[in-house]
Amino acid sequence: MVPMKSLIRYWPGVALALACGFAFAASPSSPPAGNLVFEAVSETPVEIFQGADARFTYRVRNTGTSPIRIQRIDPAPPPGSARFEPAELAPGATGRIELEKPAIDALGKQSFAFHVYSTDAAARSVPVSLPVFVGSAYVPELPAIDFGVIRKGHAEPKLLEVTSFEAPSLKMEGIIEKPDWVLVEPVPGETGKDPQRLMLRVSLTKNLPLGESRRTVKIRTNIQTQPVLVLQVATNAYDKIQVSPAQMDIGAIHRNAKIVQTVDLRAIDGKPIQITKAEETGENLDLSIEPCGEGCARLSAKVKTANLKPLRGYVTVQVGSHGETIKIPYYGLIVKEGTMIKNLGVLDANADVRVQGEVKEQ
Questions:
Q1: What is the overall mean pLDDT for the chain?
Q2: pLDDT band at 359 (very low <50, low <70, confident <90, very high)
Q3: Does position 28 have pLDDT exceeding 70, yes or no?
Q4: Which has the minimum average pLDDT: 26-35, 138-147, 291-300?
Q5: Are 31 and 127 in contact (CB under 8 A)?
């Protein structure tokens, strides 16, 4: 199994906001004091490959003075399943429960909750966990290709090199799932003398939709421990109208701050632009349109900052003069006045980040 690196999952456009005067701590809640005692039998955590089922076993003992019947064990939330025997435990007797969580895709260390329901008068429901570490059989662990902002029909194919040490050679056997605007094919002869390396060529077809697109491609390989290679493909396509910037990166802003974001829409043919409609998916922005030169229209978005909330949505612009509809995503976060905001910018996946700041007592 390939060792897991630190995974940074980010929300585009949101700076790191540290709330002064508030302390946040993660502490597991203590289960109710009952007569059923659970002891882990499986290795903790269970180590599996991405997409595999996780199984974990507990030994359960009745420490009470009366028989206890286990009625059912439910995953919280589903999916998941459990088996247990015997169903009834006499005082001092022990049993066994097996928990199963199917097809886990998220990488890294995680824990899944189950609830054990029984006739124990001291605790009718007791939470137990299935701890798991999900690794990848491939390098990179999270293969992804971002074509960036491109004009439809003008994107050059991109190459992706994937390695696996779980078999003497790595081969692509087929496509399980993909959007109709993505084409993935192996490149023969590009991996040199290393059969554990596979070179993939990723292309965009004429079916590519306009605007921002992020989709998953599932590739079948010959790796038995993890036969599915998951590839993320992203693009932001335009055709007759070029949008700059392609998305509104509002970031973290203080409540009641005055913020206006602008986006320029330029016609590729240089002809005048006529905007017939501009609207957004939520009630976060006040929109207006004004000219910004020949063949250009400027969209201004005044952010409504009265309430603390995340900002996420799309602005849809209909360009009647060119028969094109454009979707512009926006992201942001409104935080309390006085909150310290650190803009981390664009981070490398392997970067170590340390944020220092002063926390004031309330």
A1: 87
A2: very low
A3: no
A4: 26-35
A5: yes
Question: What does the pLDDT average to over 34-40?
Answer: 94
Residues of the chain with CATH 2.60.40.10: 33-135, 144-238, 241-342
Query: pLDDT at residue 211 above 80?
Result: yes
Class of the CATH-defined domain 144-238: mainly beta
Distance CA 226, CA 51 (A): 7
Which of 1.20.1530.20, 2.60.40.10, 3.90.226.10, 3.40.50.740 is the CATH number of 33-135?
2.60.40.10
Q: Band of the pLDDT at 30, cuts 50, 70, 90?
A: very low
Global pTM reads: 0.73
Within 10 Å of residue 236's Cβ, how many Cβ atoms? 21
> Beta 211-221 vs 248-254: how paired, if at all?
unpaired
As given in the structure block, the two tokens for residue 45 are 């955590």
Query: Nearest-CA neighbor of 96 among 43, 56, 66?
Result: 56
Which residues contact residue 27 at a Cβ distance below 8 angstroms, ignoring those fewer than 6 apart?
none
Dihedral angle of Cα 291, 263, 237, 242, to the nearest 10 degrees: 30
> pLDDT for 80-103, tens place per residue?
999 999 999 999 999 999 999 998
Q: Which CATH superfamily is domain 241-342 in?
A: Immunoglobulins (2.60.40.10)
